[in-house]
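Here is an idea for our session: we take a single protein and study its fold together. To get us started, please write out a protein record for me. Once you have written the record down, we can walk along the chain together.
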Amino acid sequence: MEDSLGIWEEQIAVVILNFNCSSLTIKNIRQIKKLSNKLHIIVVDNKSTDDSVAELNNKLCSYGNIQIIPNDRNGGYAAGNNVGINYAMENLDKVKAIVICNPDIIIPDLDVLKEMYYAIVNDQKLGAVTVQTIYNGKINEPNECAWKYFSLARLLMNSSILFGRRIKHNRYECLELNANGIGYVDVVQGCFFMCGTKALKSIRGFDENTFLYSEEQILAKRLNRFGYVNGVIPTKFIYHNHQEKDKSLISYDKKIFDIRCFFDSRKYYVNNYMHLTPFMKKLASSVLEFDFQVKKVLLRFRKKN
């Protein structure tokens, strides 16, 4: 009876963070609205420098259950999504689960959200859940929807320009499924996942001390501290078109900013979420900073040539 009335749909809020990509965000929301008009959608504009807010209001005004929140600052991925999470938990009493969804994600059918919702509701220890990803039009094996925690050595080597392409990936070759068809994992992808509101209240949302990158690992650590685990439903898929972001990183300045964020986030993760001695934290931070400076020089060299 609950399914036929669509009550479960009213208990989901989808948070979408927009920054200078209103066309992608509008396309995403129109697709979601084709699936159901009962889902709550919260769009947080992260202080776009274009006319995104006007476009969003103009193109989405005819839809119901959409809240558009212009942010007064761009604090990055974690801070921006927290605005949407906090709005949902403070204003939408019926909501039991919140989806974090990038603008470049396409959810192909309503069953994706339905299975994620019931996984969260029925498994009290499940903090976050995602599905498999068709990435830029193809399925990668192993899938990029989840990965294991990094050891310090693997984290440093993965970031390194010398070893980054030589070490083995940190994703799962296969998943051991429980009776409900969920595979427990360390970390789920940040582009699309669902959390229960109870879990989000426990951890107080994202740690806002990173601008971009490492949010997934940090979120997983925070959930784990409160006894939660993360999971993947391998029978369901979403589409992730990352080509738009790849195009945006053509300019030298944007590439430098991107890798600066990457290494700053790695350093923050090392210093705040890994159990290391103060000496090892300092050493790891120095190695990461050295790698950033090397990449910066190489990018400058490529720019000149």
